[in-house]
Specification:
By secondary structure, the protein is an alpha/beta fold. The chain has one domain: P-loop containing nucleotide triphosphate hydrolases (Rossmann fold, 3-Layer(aba) Sandwich), CATH 3.40.50.300. It has nine helices and ten strands. The chain has a six-stranded mixed beta sheet with strand order 6-7-8-3-9-10, with helices on both faces. Strand 7, helix 6 and strand 8 form a beta-alpha-beta unit. The chain starts with a strand and ends with a helix. Keywords: ATP-binding, Cell membrane, Membrane, Nucleotide-binding, Transport. It holds the Pfam family ABC_tran. Its main location: membrane. This is ATPase component (GlnQ). It is a peripheral membrane protein.
């Protein structure tokens, strides 16, 4: 379980997040939604300290950090060993094949043997029907294929929590569907995921809970069905803007 308590992040010209209190259960999928610039990505990136909040407490499993105090490299490493991030940009290693993209982290960071890392990577590719991509380079892949590989590369590190920041925002609808199918499969397997998404249909179908961030504040946090059937004016306004 990940929890944040009284988390705030201020920039010189803007309040990004203000007094955020949230729980992200293990083995569940949480969708973070809200208007552009509302603080969704800042919240996600705070969970693995890519963005450093000014104040608050971060709890991941048994690890508790006071974010108002300086953090040691060891503390930051402990957080990042439990999480893996997938960004909007695929950011694959362009000089490496798909297989080597998946084995680079386990070999260099986790000190796994080449044989063990390759075996695990091939199993991941097989699991998601991507074996034929193993020896291709990123330039030989479609945008959807690249993003699917980026997700598998994160999974290859065996994270406790998978964090995804708008993983389909740069894709056309057909390629987006390819990536969303992978995420649906992960949700069925009860992989712990926190996903910033603009795709309300996906959030409604896949998420166990929804967090609605509006202007740096939590406008809703709870069951998915409760969000999509809310009578709260601001939520109805937001969801109404998704259709025309």
């Amino acid at each position: 379980m990940i929890q944040v308590k009284n988390l705030s992040k201020h920039y010189p010209d803007k309040v990004a997040l203000e007094d955020i209190n949230l729980t992200f259960p293990a083995d569940h999928t949480t969708a973070i939604v809200g208007p552009s610039g509302s603080g969704k990505s800042t919240l996600l990136r705070s969970l693995n300290l890519l963005d450093r909040p000014d104040t608050g407490t971060l709890l991941i499993d048994q690890l508790i950090l006071d974010l108002a105090k300086p953090l040691t490299n060891s503390q930051i490493l402990q957080i990042r060993q439990k999480t893996a991030m997938v960004f909007q940009e695929k950011a694959l290693f362009t000089h490496l094949t798909v297989l080597k993209n998946l084995t680079e982290g386990p070999i260099k960071v986790q000190k796994k043997s080449k044989e063990e890392a390759e075996s695990s990577a091939k199993e991941l590719l097989k699991q998601f029907n991507m074996t034929e991509l193993a020896n291709r380079y990123p330039y030989q892949l479609s945008g959807g294929q690249q993003q699917r590989v980026a997700i598998l590369r994160a999974l290859a590190m065996s994270p406790k929590y998978l964090l995804l920041d708008e993983p389909t925002s740069a894709l056309d609808p057909e390629l987006e569907a390819q990536v969303l199918r992978v995420l649906k499969e992960l949700a069925k397997k009860e992989v712990s995921m926190v996903i910033v998404t603009h795709n309300m249909s996906f959030a409604e179908q896949v998420a166990d809970q929804v967090v609605f961030i509006d202007d740096g504040h939590v406008g809703y946090a709870g069951p998915t069905d409760g969000f999509f059937h809310s009578n709260e004016k601001r939520i109805k306004q937001f969801l109404g803007a998704m259709s025309f």
